[in-house]
Design a protein that fits this description.
The protein is α/β, with parallel strands linked by helices and 467 residues long. It has two domains: 204 residues, FAD/NAD(P)-binding domain (3-Layer(bba) Sandwich), CATH 3.50.50.60; 203 residues, Polyamine Oxidase, Chain A, domain 2. The protein is 32% helix and 21% strand. It has 13 helices and 22 strands. Strands 3, 4, 12, 13, 14, 15, 16 and 22 form an eight-stranded mixed β-sheet that branches. Helix 1 packs parallel to helix 13, helix 3 packs across helix 6 and helix 10 packs across helix 12. The longest helix has 22 residues. The chain is globular and about 65 Å long. The structure holds flavin-adenine dinucleotide. The site of flavin-adenine dinucleotide has 41 residues, from helix 1, strand 7 and helix 13. Keywords: FAD, Flavoprotein, Oxidoreductase. It catalyses: benzylamine + O2 + H2O = benzaldehyde + H2O2 + NH4(+); N-acetylputrescine + O2 + H2O = 4-acetamidobutanal + H2O2 + NH4(+); a secondary aliphatic amine + O2 + H2O = a primary amine + an aldehyde + H2O2. Its cofactor is FAD. Its EC number is 1.4.3.-. It comes from Adineta ricciae.
Length: 467
């Protein structure tokens, strides 16, 4: 094991050297879940695969840190049996799930009046009332947005309606329905906290259609939606899943701590990948799986489709903070919410006795490297707790990532998503940031990687025989 952010994780792999300049069938850029699943699928079909990863570990935006006898998911965490691609892998590798306990807490703390007033309320009753407010917020068509997102895994089934609502930010929609919602202060605070938490920032910057997508994926129901988003973790850890997929790859060469600088597809029958080191590698195809917000760091010759360039330049929402805090004493099952711009918009206990809290906040408003700052923010909800340690990673400033989970800005889904998904043979694209269904999730990364692996296989079958 080695360390990321000083935290040991299973998915560190001993570096390999590039020993020759032979041509690969596929060069995959990025070893997150989308790159890993594509590497597995293509290598199992006897394709010669090179997997190049800038970090010193696989797993990308997921890694399970092993610390103080526990497992802490520093990036992507929760999955659900209704997420078809990830659940298939859970079954395939014999993994299991464990519940984050605070989601079913009896009591919750809500911060009102710009974080100055603390209210303790019952979770169950208020969760139902919040669900009703969320229904009104989402109900653009009297059928809970089913005319916008009837089939969330085929998000453009009702393209005209998607375009119509994609003009709105989440704040625009809130302003439209604010009066009709007729909410108590607590419910308004909870609604705004949940919306901000979902897009991890200022809801004026988040596209409303992405909310409707989550709503549809959550069966148009808030409690079911939340169960799918934040309740069940992989017991063995996301790193165990990433490692299992890598172990299943057949003769895939993996280069870690290696960044791709450019992809040149101007030559016939061969793509030239240039590494930051200056080394050149030849491939028949290239699969680019880097996060959307760092796509602009790779030079493409000729340039990519203009719509890809447009969103790569502007970026999707960057996301915020996620941290784990170990408390000095157990507090039982507990849940908390506070509206933006409070530095913590949502937090809940994760373990059985309630001494580990997972917290989220918008746009880097919380310095999670500073224990005292985290403790001060948690004390707004829990005045007497002390924090023993905090674990987290600043994904927003990580030069290979620059974002957390995918949330598009207004207009980006209807203008850019299909362009991002479209391959430009011999260059193909996959990412959790460009998936059709669970975009922004591990499931979406797997979906996107599987789709691209199929496209690449078809392309290679058509143009080359197996090597
Ligand atoms: C804090 C946080 C919480 C999350 N919570 C959840 C959750 O609870 N449930 C869930 O399902 N999802 C969650 N997600 C989202 C989920 O983790 C991602 O959607 C998914 O892991 C993305 O996988 P990917 O393979 O598409 O991209 P990534 O995992 O980002 O992999 C892309 C890889 O490309 C590499 N790379 C970048 N540039 C280069 C280059 N030039 N050369 C070589 N390599 C390069 C990167 O280092 C990275 O490893 C969360 C994400 C974060 C950050």
């Amino acid at each position: 094991m080695a360390a990321t952010d000083g935290l040991p994780t299973l998915t560190y792999v001993q570096p390999q050297k590039l020993v020759n300049t032979e041509q690969y069938d596929v060069i995959i850029v990025g070893a997150g879940f989308s790159g890993l699943i594509a590497a597995r699928e293509l290598s199992l079909r006897q394709r010669k695969v090179l997997l190049i990863e800038a970090k010193d570990r696989i797993g990308g935006r997921t890694f399970t840190a092993e610390y103080d006898g526990g497992k802490f998911e520093i990036g992507g965490t929760w999955i659900h049996w209704s997420q078809p691609h990830v659940w298939t892998e859970i079954t395939r590798y014999g993994l299991s799930i464990i519940e984050s306990k605070g989601v079913a807490a009896e009591h919750m703390s809500v911060l009102l009046d710009n974080g100055t007033k603390l209210k303790q309320i019952t979770l169950a009753d208020n969760w139902v009332t919040l669900g009703k407010a969320m229904e009104k917020y989402s109900d653009v068509d009297n059928v809970q947005a089913r005319t916008v997102m009837p089939l969330p895994h085929a998000p453009f089934t009702a393209r005209e309606n998607v375009e119509k609502y994609d003009r709105l930010s989440m704040q625009d929609r809130f302003d439209q329905v604010r009066n009709a919602l007729n909410m108590t202060d607590e419910i308004q605070a909870m609604l705004l906290a949940l919306l901000s938490m979902n897009m991890q920032g200022n809801i004026a910057e988040g596209g409303f259609v992405d909310h409707l997508r989550w709503w549809a994926l959550g069966d148009y129901d808030m409690i079911r939606m939340f169960d799918k988003l934040g309740r069940y973790k992989i017991k063995e850890g996301t790193s165990t899943l990433a490692q299992a997929i890598l172990n299943d790859c057949q003769n895939v060469k993996l280069l870690l701590s290696t960044s791709v600088a450019s992809v040149d597809r101007t030559k016939q029958d061969s793509v030239i990948v240039r590494l930051q080191s200056g080394d050149l590698i030849l491939g028949r195809t290239v699969l680019v799986t880097v996060p959307l917000n760092v796509l602009k760091n790779i030079e493409f010759l000729p340039a990519l489709n203009i719509k890809k360039q447009d969103i790569a330049a502007k970026g999707q929402c960057q996301g915020g903070t996620k941290f784990w805090a170990k408390l000095d004493k157990p507090i039982g099952h507990w849940f908390a919410m506070a509206p933006y711009p409070n530095p913590i918009t949502m937090a809940y206990t994760d373990d059985q006795d309630g001494s580990v809290v997972v917290g989220f906040g918008p746009e880097g408003l919380l310095d999670m490297k500073n224990i005292k700052t985290v403790e001060k923010e948690l004390n707004k909800f829990l005045p007497t707790v002390k924090v023993q340690y905090v674990l987290g990673h600043d994904w927003r400033t990580d030069p290979n990532i620059m974002s957390t989970w995918s949330w598009y800005k207004p207009g980006q889904m209807s203008s850019n998503l299909q362009a991002l998904q479209t391959c430009e043979p011999p260059v193909f694209f996959a990412s959790g940031d460009i998936a059709s269904g669970w975009r922004g999730f591990i499931d979406g990364a797997l979906e996107s990687g599987l789709k691209s692996a199929r496209e690449i296989q078809q392309y290679l079958d058509k143009h080359f025989t197996s090597t």
